[in-house]
C-alpha cells in the first residue's frame, strides 16, 4: 500500500477491526460460559453467579462424567459410528458417483434423475421404520449409518468433481490397459483428495451430530450414541419431564455436570476440523464450479 | 384351546432358552431343578407358583430414566428374587408417545409396558392391551393383596381391568410458598395468613428492597394463592356436583388478584417463561423474595442461597387462609403409572407372574428400600437410608416398579426423602403445615379413564393455562372471562364436565 491512509480511513479500519473482533469473540461466549459452568460449584451455577469465569472452582464434574459408564458407552458408540459410518458412506458414495460422472454410461440422465428424486421425496418416517423392522435393523448399530450411507447431495459434489478432471487422464490410462476399477482407485481418487476429505468431514460431522435416527430406531441403552445421550440428559432434567414425577425430580442431574457433558460431547468432533480444514474450502468450491 | 397353544409356546420357549443359555449370568441362583423337567412341569401345572424350571426371558418397556436399566443393581435384584431374566427397554425422554405408537403399530414385542395415563388410555381403547381380570384372579394373589380397591377403578375400561395401577407415595404435598426470612425479620414483617396480608408484605418488600418480590414458573400458577380464593383442585365437589376450576366463580377473583400483583410490579413478569431452575436462580441471587418451592429442590435452592448470602434464611409461609378463615390444600391422588400387558406378548401369564412375584411383601420391600442393615435402618418406626449404599443400589428403584404395595409404600418411600437432612426438613415442614389445613383430595383422582375426559383434557388445560396467563399479565381484561368460558365449553368443556359428572354421580349410588 503506497497510498497513505486518511484519518477517516484509519478510523474506519480501527472501528471495523474492533467490531469484527468483538463479533468473533461473541461466538465463543457460549463455550466460555459452558466451560466456566462445568468448572464451578453447583450452588454457584444454580444461583446464577457464573458468567465467564468459574466460581468455586472444582474438577469433580469431569471426573464424574468420565467415570460414567453411560457416557463412555455412548462415546464408544459415537466414535465407532463416525468412523465406520464415514468409511462406508464415503466408499458407497464414491463408487456411485464415478459411473454417473462418465458420459459413456447409458441411461445416465435417467439414473441421475432417480437419485435426485430421492432428494426431493422420501418414504416418510413410518414406512421407513417398517422397512428397517423388516430388515431386522431395529436396535442394531448399522441402522444408524446404512440408511444414510448414500447422501445424494454429497454424491453430486463428488460427481461434479470427477467430471472436472481432464478426460485425457482416463484415456491414457485406458491405453495403458487399466480397467475401470483400476482407473478409479489409481488415477481418479488420488487426484480427488480435497473433495474426498471434505465429504468425509461432512459425513463424520453428520454422524456425530445425529440423534434423531437413534431416537427413532434405538431403545437399547447400550447402543445410544453420544448426542442422544446428551439430549436425554438435558431433557430429563427439564421441567416438562419432571412435572408430576417426584422420583425423577429427586434424581436430576446437576447443571455443572450437564455443562461438562455438553462440552465433552462437542470437543472430539471439533478436533477433526483443523486437520481437514485445508481441504475444506478448496474441496467444496472445486466440486461446485462445474455444477 | 388357545390357552394350550400359549402354554405350548411357553414350554417351547423355555426349552430353547434353557438349551441356549447354559451358564448365562442372568440365570437365577435359586432354580435347582434341571431344565429337562421344564416342559412337563409347565404344561402340567399352569397355575401353581412353580419355582422349578428355567423361566423365560421377559421384555419390559419402561419410561425414560437416565441410567442403563440392564446394568442397574435393581434389575439384578428383581431377577434374583423372581427368577425371571428380564430385558428392559426404555421410551425416549422426548416424543415418548410417538415412539410408543410406532412400536405398538409395528407389533414390536413386549411382555410388559409401564405407561402414563394418556398412553395407557390410548392403547387400551385401540385394543392393543390384554384384559387382565382372569390372569390376575388366577395368578395374582400378591397383586390382589397389594392394590387397594379404590385404585383398580383407574385401570378399568368398560368393567375390565387393562393394567395394574401404580399409585405414588400417598397423600403428600409438594410445594409451599417460601420467603427470605432474613428480610422479613429485618423489615419486621409477619408471615401473611391470607391474600390481603400477602399483598401488604409483598408491597413492603418491594419498597424496601426495590425488587419484584414474588417469582414463579408457568407450572406454578395454582396452589397456595389460588387455593385461598377457593380454586383448590382441578375438579371440585360443590354441593355434590363436580365443577371444573375454570367454571368456579372464584377463578375471576383469583385472576383479578394476580393481575393486581402483576400490574403493581409485585409478581415477576417473566413468570410465564421461567423454568424452575430460573426461579431458584432469581430467589437465590436476591432478585426475588418469595416463590413456591418444591421440597425436592429444597437442598439445591438452600445451598445456592447460602452461597450468595451466607446470612440468608428461608422461611416457610403457612398455607394461606381464605376469607372465611379456613386454609385448604388440594391434593391429586391419581394413578401415575399403568402396567399393561400388550396383546402381542407371547408370555402373558409369565408377565403377570412376574408382577405378582415383585409384589410379594418382602420382595417389594427389598425393591423399595433394600435390605435392613445394608440399605436402610429402622429408627423410631421410620425408615432411614444408609448412604451411600442406598443411593448406589436403589436410586432408580421406582422406575422398575410394576405396581406398589399400597399399604406400605408410602412409609417405605419416605426413606428417599431422608437421604438428605435439608430435603427431609422441608418435606416434613410442608407436610406438617398441610396437616394443619383441610386437605382436599381431587375427586377425579380415582376416576377410571373416561373417553370424553381423556380426549379433551390436554387441549382444555392448555387453552385455560394460556388464557389465564393473559389475564394475569393484563393483556386480556378479566371482564371478558365469561366469553372465554363459553368458548372453553364450546371447545369440549361442556362434554368434559358432563362426562366427569356422569361418572361422579354413578359412584354415589
UniProtKB/TrEMBL annotation, chain A:
Organism: Paenibacillus nanensis
Name of protein: Carbohydrate ABC transporter permease
Family: Belongs to the binding-protein-dependent transport system permease family.
Coiled coil stretches, renumbered: none
Keyword terms of this UniProt record: Cell membrane, Membrane, Transmembrane, Transmembrane helix, Transport
UniProt-listed PANTHER family: ABC TRANSPORTER PERMEASE PROTEIN MG189-RELATED-RELATED, POLYGALACTURONAN_RHAMNOGALACTURONAN TRANSPORT SYSTEM PERMEASE PROTEIN YTCP
Localization terms from the record: Cell membrane
Topology within the bilayer: Multi-pass membrane protein
Cited InterPro entries: MetI-like, MetI-like_sf
ABC transmembrane type-1 domain: residues covered: 75-275
CDD domains given in the database record: TM_PBP2 (cd06261)
Any Gene Ontology biological process: transmembrane transport
Gene Ontology cellular component list: plasma membrane
Listed transmembrane segments: 12-32, 79-98, 110-132, 144-162, 183-208, 257-276
UniProtKB/TrEMBL annotation, chain B:
Coiled-coil residue windows: none
Segments of skewed composition (Low complexity): 24-44
Keyword Lipoprotein: yes
PROSITE patterns: PROKAR_LIPOPROTEIN (PS51257)
Annotated TM spans: none
Record-linked InterPro entries: Bact_solute-bd_prot1 (IPR050490), SBP (IPR006059)
Keyword presence, Electron transport: no
Region (Disordered) residue spans: 24-55
Keyword line: Cell membrane, Lipoprotein, Membrane, Palmitate, Signal
Signal peptide start and end residues: 1-18
Full protein name: Extracellular solute-binding protein
